[in-house]
Amino acid sequence: MENLGDLIRRLRKEHRLSQQALAAQYGMSRATISGIENNTIAEVGIRKVEAILNGFGYELTAVARPAKRPTLDSLKKDAFHG
User: Fold this and answer.
1) pLDDT, tens digit, for every residue of 1-44?
2) Domain 2-55 belongs to what topology?
3) Are the C-beta atoms of residues 5 and 34 closer than 8 Å to each other?
4) How much is the pTM?
5) Choosing a second label site near 4 at 20 to 30 A (CA), which of 50, 51, 69, 82?
């Protein structure tokens, strides 16, 4: 979520929008936009974030991540045998 907040802040500034203007555009409070950008909001609806991103021409997607992070021992083993 932290990366999303940074992205939304950057896009908002690139489009020369204040937090208040962006909030009004999506029926939110300025405090909600601030919370999203600063990753301080307890909960935010995914639809709100998606709407903002869509408005800037972005699509919210999910990306699979590895089920298990490698350990240092496994990385060493792979490097030795690779």
Assistant:
1) 668 899 999 999 999 999 999 999 999 999 999 999 998 988 88
2) 434 Repressor (Amino-terminal Domain) (1.10.260)
3) no
4) 0.71
5) 69
